[in-house]
Amino acid sequence: MKTKENESFFCDKETGVCSNAPITKQQKSEDIDAIQLPKTKLIYYYDALCGWCFGFSSVMSKISEAYADRFNIEVVSGGLFLGNRTGLVNEVAPYIKAGAYKSVEERTGVKFGESFLEDLFGKEKIVLNSLPPSIALCIVKEKFPEKELKFAEMLLHAVYFDGINPINLDNYTKYVEKIGLDKGEFLVKMKDTKYKKLAEKEFEKFGASNFSGMPTLVLETENKQVVLTNGYTDFENIKSQLDQLLTSHLVKL
Questions:
Q1: Are strands 251-252 and 35-36 parallel, antiparallel or unpaired?
Q2: CA 125, 127, 128: angle at the middle one, nearest 5?
Q3: Distance separating the N- and C-terminal Cα atoms of the chain
Q4: pLDDT tens across 168-189, in order?
Q5: Residues 73, 40: contact at Cβ < 8 Å?
Q6: pLDDT at 95
């Protein structure tokens, strides 16, 4: 029987839809050969416009805090809303208004902000386009790689709590300033094709991974992968898997 413990909650890359779906590509840690550090890292496939990633933010914060001395975390933008899937929130993602945001709140405990909900149910000015926030993240990753997870979480909060319009570049400046980046430098780089190409490479990396949606968290080394989750799950589940890998010496420190 399908329960909350074995359901997967994610935003699908192919359709853009955030829903419940079967977990795919899960691997049992006991089936993985010993993984050597320090080349081992956690790769977090996410998108700044992924509702389930918004719900997963607190989980990633706990993971970062608990394992900061053992794993580096790389954030890779998946490109949830691109091309013909970009547009006004209620046109390209009507499922959010229909109740998907409530599902995220009930499952994860996160709360969508009044500013976002006011737009969702009234103003309808927010345009979903994953490219601008992905470019912004690439800029921060280059300048402050140690802050990439923090900024990725800030982008989710900016959209789904503060209700910013992702296509307005000026909306990002107060967040990059909190990270320590000059807003003038940031706005210049946002128009530099270098960072657009970096963002597109991240979309390609996620596409090549063949994961069905986001959030996805992978323990990766030079030639091995352990899929910790493909879809939302709680911190205890991730911690259990990582601790098993560490205590059973499947990951060697």
A1: parallel
A2: 145
A3: 38
A4: 999 999 999 999 999 999 999 9
A5: no
A6: 95
Would you tell me the crossing angle of helices 235-247 and 51-66 to the nearest 10 degrees? 40
Q: What is the pLDDT of residue 210?
A: 86
Segment 7-33 mean pLDDT:
52
Find tokens 């416009």 and name the residue.
Answer: 49
CA dist 206 and 65 (Å) reads: 25
Domains of the chain and CATH, by start = 10-20+36-245 (3.40.30.10)
51-66 vs 101-108: helix crossing angle, rounded to 10: 20
Torsion angle in degrees (nearest 10) through CA of 14, 15, 19, 21: -40
Segment 82-125, tens digit of pLDDT: 999 999 999 999 999 999 999 999 999 999 999 999 999 998 89
Q: Which residues contact 229 (CB under 8 A, 6 or more apart)?
A: 8, 23, 26, 215, 216, 217, 237, 238
Question: What's the CA gap between 200 and 76, in Å, rounded?
Answer: 10
**pLDDT tens, residue by residue, 36-75:** 545 689 999 999 999 999 999 999 999 999 999 989 999 9
Mean pLDDT of 212-221: 92
Q: CA neighbours within 13 Å on the CB side: how many for 195?
A: 21
Angle at 139 between CA 197 and CA 72, to 5 degrees: 100
* Whole-number Å distance between alpha carbons of 246 and 253: 8
